[in-house]
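Dear Dr. H.,

I hope your travels went smoothly. While you were away I took the liberty of generating a structure for the chain from your last submission, since the lab meeting agenda had it listed for discussion. I wanted you to have the full record in hand beforehand rather than looking at slides cold. The sequence, exactly as received, is reproduced here:
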Amino acid sequence: AGKASAGKTKKKWSKGKVQDKANNAVYFNAETLAKLEKEVPTYKLITPSVLVDRMRINGSLARRALRELEARGAIRLVSAHNSQLLYTRASAAVTEA
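The corresponding predicted structure, in token form, is as follows:
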């Protein structure tokens, strides 16, 4: 059995897919902060993941930003389940209620 398989070439393993490193900002610069204050309160669904994806900031920065916007009343908390925070526009609360 060993001699029969010796003639075949050994299977080469692929290196796998390499994911690009997300080069997200770890602090706010003036333009990112302005964009956050202007655009985020208009989003219908606001989560830390959405901010990370759209603003290219890291997760801890996104969570801090959302807490700050909620304290100002720009957005409102819908649900806080473990680490997943779910926010919506503040104006939506008035029209839907």
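Two observations you may find useful: The two ends are 75 Å apart (CA to CA). Residues 32 and 55 are 7 Å apart (CA to CA).

With kind regards,
E. W.
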